[in-house]
Amino acid sequence: MKYIMNYGGGVNSTAMFFLILKEKLPLDEVIFADTGCEMPETYEVVKKMEAVAKKNDVVFTIVKSPLGNIYDYYYRKRTVPSRIKRDCTFKFKIQPIRNYMRKTYGKQERFVQYLGIALEELTRMRVSDVKYTELRYPLIDHKIDRKGCIKINEENGFQKVEKSGCYFCPFQSKKKWLELM
Question: What sign does the CA torsion over 91, 97, 101, 103 have?
Answer without folding.
Answer: positive
